[in-house]
Amino acid sequence: MSAYVISEVEVRDQAAMEAYRTLAAQTIAQYGGCYLVRGGPAEVVEGGPPAKTIIIVEFPSMARAREWYASPEYAAALKLRQTALERRLLFVEGVIPA
Fold first, then answer.
1. What does the alpha-carbon distance between residue 96 and residue 98 come to, in Å, rounded to a whole number?
2. From CA 38, how far away is CA 54, in angstroms rounded?
3. How many CB atoms lie within 10 A of CB 70?
4. How confident is the prediction for the chain on average, in pLDDT?
5. Rounded Cα gap, residues 76 and 25, in angstroms
6. Burial letters for 6-43: b for 16+ Cβ neighbours within 10 Å, e otherwise?
7. pLDDT tens-place string over residues 45-76
8. CA distances, 13 to each of 17, 52, 71, 72 (Å)
């Protein structure tokens, strides 16, 4: 069953963000993930606060998403993340297709 990694981010340092984004994308692909949403305009229709930048990545399974996050390859990107952006990160399991 697919799993989704949802990030809500606010950029702190644009140069560090670009370096983080490049490293993260490489590791996501290496672990079988693919971007579904990568920072396009977001509109709040109900509730608040205002939307920040949203990124959604699909992985083949929750186990694979967790493996990616804990991987030595992603560790280098995580070091950059601290300078690059503020983030709220969620892991969500998908549904079994009917």
1. 6
2. 7
3. 10
4. 94
5. 12
6. ebebebeeeebbebbbebbeebbeebebeeeeeeeeee
7. 999 887 889 999 999 999 999 999 999 999 99
8. 6, 15, 24, 23
> What is the reported pTM?
0.91
Measured from the Cβ of residue 62, the count of other Cβ atoms closer than 10 Å reads 17
DSSP one-letter string for 57-74: EEES-HHHHHHHHTSHHH
Paired tokens of 14: 């644009």
87: exposed, middle or buried (C-beta count within 10 Å: 0-12, 13-18, 19+)?
A: middle
Query: Is the separation of the CB atoms in 85 and 9 below 8 Å?
Result: yes
Structure tokens at 55: 């990124």
How far apart, in whole angstroms, are the C-alpha atoms of residue 51 and residue 53? Answer: 7
Q: How far apart are the first and last CA of the chain?
A: 12
For residue 14, the one-letter residue type is: Q
